[in-house]
Amino acid sequence: METITTERLILRPWQDSDVDFVFDLYSRWVVQRFIGNEPRVMESRSEAVERVARFQAVDHEVHGIWAVTRKDDGDPVGALLLKPIPASGEEPLQPSNDVEIGWHLHPDHWGSGFASEAAQAVLEHAFAHGLERVVAVTNPANEASQSVCRRLGMKGKGLSKKYYNATCELFVAKKPGLNS
């Protein structure tokens, strides 16, 4: 997985030393409330150890789950993902033909522009590596993430039940220069 650098951020692979940050991030209801069909907070450090291991296992030329860190001090601020998105259907859900982008930022960094900056860099990475289309899905009540999608130039497609067996707001980004 490539490390990606922006003006203020470094998106890098997760390290074992990130476990405490992951626990802090995902143990917060304000972060978890819009994630998944049945949101729940992380309750133990061992869950964070498992989550970091899952993040580290996504080692792919294009896809990844990056630790988003500040360039000036290296402190983590959140997670940015680019991965195949599962289609709705019978459990266990099977991959669709689409790739999703998503972000989970620590509340201390909301409003900083970090989500938009990191996501823009990952979209550029995705398109440079041959992807022609990337989707984002948000809980219909998650207006902040929908605003990020719009800032990225993603086109809102309305409510969709196409992924995760959930009703989500669907946004689509297409590689620059594609008409369809």
From TrEMBL:
MF-aspect GO terms: acyltransferase activity, transferring groups other than amino-acyl groups
Gene3D superfamilies xref list: 3.40.630.30
Coiled coil regions, renumbered to chain: none
UniProt xrefs under PROSITE patterns: GNAT
InterPro entries: Acyl_CoA_acyltransferase, GNAT_dom, N-acetyltransferase
Keywords noted in UniProt: Transferase
N-acetyltransferase domain segment(s): 9-177
Database matches in SUPFAM superfamilies: Acyl-CoA N-acyltransferases (Nat)
Keyword Transferase: yes
Name recorded for this polypeptide: GNAT family N-acetyltransferase
Species name: Arthrobacter livingstonensis
